[in-house]
């Protein structure tokens, strides 16, 4: 599948798969950024992706990302196929989970992404009698109990 990419910053590199069997391609940050303790930052990639209609891009952490003290704040980040305007740069939203500043260096690969199909769902409303009479409870009901009361 071809995915069109536009570099809105000439320092941006076109993403690539690091191995033949990789499910995701890595996303690089295009500038040095320091993320303050317990804060969120938007890291620039310098790229606009033109995702084919019927697909979306999911941005997720690399397995090494937690070693930095960072997490992807909205993981998975969702890039819709219609987010492809001239200034619609894909950014990586990270959270610093430490009590010290964390520096991300230019060209550091802090996240990875995959292109996935989007099934179009038709919602069909049903009456209560179509539901199971046994409620599951949710929120840890099959193992660890929820630490907070649930509605």
Chain-wise SSE layout:
Blueprint: E1 4-7, E2 25-28, E3 33-35, E4 40-44, E5 47-50, E6 55-61, E7 70-72, E8 77-79, E9 91-96, E10 102-104, E11 109-117
Antiparallel strand pairs: 1-5, 2-11, 3-10, 4-9, 6-8, 6-11, 7-9
- Subunit arrangement of the protein: single chain
- List the uncertain runs: none
Largest sheet: 4 strands, antiparallel
Helix run count: 0
CATH class: Mainly Beta
Protein structure class? mainly beta
Helix content: under 10%
Shape: globular
Query: What CATH architecture do you see?
Result: Distorted Sandwich
Terminal CA distance reads 44 Å
Q: H/E element string?
A: EEEEEEEEEEE
Supply the CATH superfamily name.
Deoxyuridine triphosphatase (dUTPase)
| CATH domain fold name | Deoxyuridine 5'-Triphosphate Nucleotidohydrolase, Chain A
User: Quick check: average pLDDT?
Assistant: 92
Over the alpha carbons, how many angstroms does the gyration radius reach? 19 Å
Instruction: Describe the strand arrangement of the main beta sheet, using strand numbers.
Output: 2-11-6-8
Number of domains: 1
Percentage of β-strand residues: 25-35%
Key structural traits:
single chain; 151 residues; mainly beta; Deoxyuridine 5'-Triphosphate Nucleotidohydrolase, Chain A; 4-stranded antiparallel beta sheet; 3-stranded antiparallel beta sheet; 11 strands
